[in-house]
Amino acid sequence: MSTLPLLKVNDVSKFYGSRIGCRNVSFDLYAGEVLAIVGESGSGKTTLLSCLSTRLMPTSGIVEYHMRDGQYRDLARMGEAERRFLMRTDWGFVHQNPADGLRMTVSAGANVGERLMAVGDRHYGNIRATASDWLQRVEIGVDRIDDQPRAFSGGMRQRLQIARNLVTSPRLVFMDEPTGGLDVSVQARLLDLVRGLVHDLGLAAIIVTHDLAVARLLSHRMMVMKDGAVIEQGLTDRVLDDPREPYTQLLVSSILQV
Amino acid sequence: MATPLVVSEVAKSFTMHLRDGVRRPVVANVSFSVKAGECVVLGGPSGVGKSSILKMLYGNYGVDEGQILMDHDGKLVNLATAEPRTVLEVRRTTLGYVSQFLRVVPRVSSLDIVAEPLQARGMPLEEARTHAAELLSKLNLPRELWGLPPATFSGGEQQRVNIARGFITDHKILLLDEPTASLDAKNRAVVVELIAAKKAKGTALIGIFHDEEVRDAVADRILDVSAFSPRKAAA
To answer: B56: how many CB neighbours lie within 10 A of its CB?
Structure first.
């Protein structure tokens, strides 16, 4: 069990003018841990995810990342170029809408290969071989390698986005509603795939979702957000089986049983 | 350590905020210990808090007061206050649980569901599958079901997958929540055998068994959970 956290989040708040995005969020995330952030629309989940992943600058608070060289770096103090490099290599970001994370007008293979080139791979044959290996891992036929994601279904696009993010062996992946907008059968396949990959690669992940079943299946730990604040957190099955806060109890009791 | 589990003065209540904050006490002053190689059966009528105690021991119910001490790799861990990642680590190597119902993961075969706890401890997949196959055949699960996800299985078939998953590791502490509830006599006997084998290996077992025959066959001691009833304590 690694003893140093991969990500240290200390008292992060984000205000949009006088409106609260998220406030006073603190936690540590360790290698191999999957954290789910749940809550209804407008609870601040996505704002928090954006602050953690440097897509937004927090109004106050510090987010530190444990770099591969063993040093902690304050993400807000990193240069733009360095931050971009981190995002393209050591991190992944899976958007709810695959079109936000893919380049829709280049081939599937190039979508995956592009990130390999960002880490310095220049050999066309190697890149193509790795790309086709990853397409298989996310269950996309290798015969589709030269097709553009425009020609893919929603579920395939999402799987392609995941391959594109994982190809550089990132240590931390952010996911914003990765199964939102997909049919349930497609969702199940994607969830199973993500679950297997996270397990096999030992990834740390932060997953924003409003779907408690997704949180149950994928995450080890859970944070429940309401009005920008974390109101309850803990082991995922503890939060879901024994919710303490009124709002968490409401969320859990609102799940429809099938 | 010959006593891998010590429970000391544990209390638990639920506050139901959706019912005007009604506070429902579940158990209070729960104190007991389980020795290596011992099987303690939680007894008492339905609703007295047997399952709640198991869930607190596994960490999926929080604990209001008291300590749950486990011997985890030679270190003492208080599960009542442990960090989530410590709880997960304890579950991976020390603490096993056979729940009443299987939580089915879409698309994962029965064989892999059973093999997973071994894989999580670093065993190569093929070797873990061999162990899983052994256990599933011992539990008489038809071989043609091994490759299928258990979502469509009968209650008894699912329960056997669940039992195999719980018994496959050599966890020092094993929690059993009615593992024989939907099994026929033949498979109940297999479970009794598996429990006896665990005891011989020095596993500490805590279980709930409504079937008297099974209970009499496995229990070294029956712990009457109604003694921990908070209503009784208040009276």
So the answer is: 27
